Amino acid sequence: MDKLFSTTYTVERLNDGPFGPYLARINDAVLDGVASGYASLTLKAHVQLLAAFGEWLSAKGVDLGAVQQETVEEYLSFRIGRPDPRHKYALILPRLLDRLGAFGKPALPPTHLEPIIADFARYLAHERGLAETTVTSYTGFVRQFLAERFGVEPSVPPALSALTPPDVTAFLLRHARSLSHGRVLLMGSALRSFFRYLVLRGETVANLSGAVHKVADWRLQTVPKALEPEQVRQLLRHCNRRTDVGRRDYAILLLLARLGLRAGEVAHLTLEAIDWEAGEIILFGKNRRVDRLPLPRDVGKAIVAYLRRGRPVCPSRRLFVRARAPHDGFKSSGAICNVVQRGLRRAGLTPPRQGAHLLRHGLAKQMLRRGASLAEIGQVLRHQRVDTTAIYAKVDLEALQPLALSWLGGAK
Question: CATH fold of 114-217, please?
């Protein structure tokens, strides 16, 4: 902070207030901010905000350890004159306090559900090899099921052996109608895994996974939504590769279009995932599966252009990072879908669906037109089940025309 401020006034304000014991942590936070790409003026504003908040706490006689969300809201009303959750102070101050470990949090009431959930999560991650996002989804459904059956905060450990098929059916019926089809399928998978886990651990004798009713799978009822080759070219042409963001987005869209990668796979690519000598991309997929895909020349050139003239200098090992500070890697597949949606808007394209799978489906459709078999498409897209690839049989309209029956009315 000595390099950040030309005078010691702000540092003295911090030292004299409740943030005095946290000066070392504040300095570390400033160093982390520099490494994450924050500008000096932004970091100065953050430190000055802490100093002003500390003075206000001292004037109010509030101890830092007693600070709650209500305290922050009261200060913001004093500072900006109105409650506005979108104001920069309302977004920054809680993050700064949490970063310092100085934000008082109410003690959570003891619950006997968390040890069960934690052990189930370890089972899913270490014994089943499921991805972190899947583990989070599964444990969320199981926590909700147990809380509704035994109470949110049971005073004694829940009797898991007392679970019955009607409990499972009632839970499914309560929530199935309010969830999307995909979420209902995921909920069923989570409960089946949990009941098998209970039998494996000896918590129950009866395996209740059979009580989770099957949900109709309508994946094959529609034709996959895909971009045509000319639309893909139009999408790529509208990336402004003279800017840092444009070079990044162009490389992302090429990966989706040329290799058919999933959005989550692109988001979690690391610098080490590119084997430049072998000309390959290494993917770590579901169930700890490792795939090596060839790196097309145009995709490699796009990635190199981004690394040399677009990627911010930062400690993150993710291949694609945020353009604005903090320069962290994308957190989820949603960020990649946002890149696709922005690209579609720039190109003036309005398909019925606007996710990253548009480009994956487009690649499969193009391969099918060029004579590739469904088995070959499944290998390129790394499908684990044949019926996942079977949906693409419906997009080959020319091959399906001879199978169509003549119209009974005699019209051509």
Answer: DNA polymerase; domain 1 (1.10.150)
CB–CB of 167/149 below 8 Å? yes
The secondary structure of residue 183, as a DSSP letter, is: H
Which residues are paired to 294 by β-bridges? 280
Which residue type, as a one-letter code, is found at position 63? Answer: D
Residues forming the active site: 262, 286, 357, 360, 383, 392
Residue with tokens 């290998």: 379
Per-position DSSP letters for 63-85, written without gaps between them:
-GGG--HHHHHHHHHHHHSS--T
Q: What is the dihedral of CA 286, 370, 279, 227, to 10 degrees?
A: -60
- Mean pLDDT estimate for the chain: 84
What superfamily would CATH give domain 229-399?
Intergrase catalytic core (1.10.443.10)
Where does 201-270 have alpha helices with state H? 229-237, 244-259, 263-267
pLDDT-derived band at 399 (thresholds 50, 70, 90) equals: low
* Span 300-320, average pLDDT: 94
